[in-house]
Amino acid sequence: MATAPRPRPRTTTRDPEELGRRLTTWLTARLPGARAANVTVPESNGMSSETLLFDIEHPEPPLTACALRLAADPAAYTVFPVYDMPRQYRTMRLVAERTDLPVPRVLWLEEDPAPLGAPFFVMERVEGRVPPDVMPYTYEGNWLHAASDQERERLEAASVGLLARLHDQVPLPEADFLTFPGEGSPLRRHVETQRAYYAWVIDGLPRSPLIESAFDRLDELWPRDEGEAVLNWGDARIGNVVYDGFAPAAVLDWEMAALAPREVDLGWTVYLHRFFQDLTASFGQRGLPDFLRRDRVERRYAELTGHTPRDMDFHTLYAALRHAIVMLRVAYRQVHFGEVAVPPDPDTLILHHGSLRAMVQGSYWEGPAAGR
Question: Does the annotation mark 73 as catalytic?
Answer without folding.
Answer: no
